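User: Quick sanity check before I run a bigger batch. Here is a single chain. Can you write out its predicted 3D structure?
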Amino acid sequence: MRNKKDPIEIKWNLIGILGKLFIDLLFFTTRIESVGLENLLPIIQSKKFIFAFWHSRILLVSYIYKNYNGATLVSQSKDGEIIAQILQRQGHQTIRGSTSKGGLRALACLIKEIKGKQKPGAVIPDGPRGPRFKAQPGVITLAKKTGYPILPVSYSAKKIKIFQSWDRFILPYPFTTCRFVYGHPLYVPQAADKDTEKQYLIRLENELCRITCAGDRYFGHNIT
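Assistant: Done. Predicted structure follows.
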């Protein structure tokens, strides 16, 4: 007698497959420009880094670096499950948890994967539910424990759909131009105390806001 597959498992598999296909087709039609990559190539080629990007700017990051075998922290929410299913099919490892649920355990697993297996990492500092553009401290702890630099990244596009969600998620239109912006790397000292960690958190937040606004302004957007 054949085993029947769980309908829920089938649903999530289908979401992951269709989500990846949609992203591949979308960005295949777009023109992608990069700003600041040349200064970071040695770090990126080493695969010893932690990407940090806002919740609203995840799509192009996951597309450009698909099959990079990175470890990404993803929330345990329903939206997080959608993101996780797509990321896994893009060649990323997902570790489930957030600051509100399973955070410490997930962070410990992420540190183990990144440092133990020398993988790049990725964190969405304002996820899973905001506040928008307000960084949470987990990424600073991750950088401190691994010794990896944080690489802030963001993007915008000429023609976009802006959703009325808490993060003001952006979706580029097909056949538009995207601008992917790399920020200045942040190296968190492993001996940093709490006050120093707060300073680096503010620096990260400011840098992410700077490069996000730079990308938006380039195309004349003012997303509020």
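Residues 7-218 form a domain with the Glycerol-3-phosphate (1)-acyltransferase fold (CATH 3.40.1130.10).

User: Great, the batch can go ahead then.
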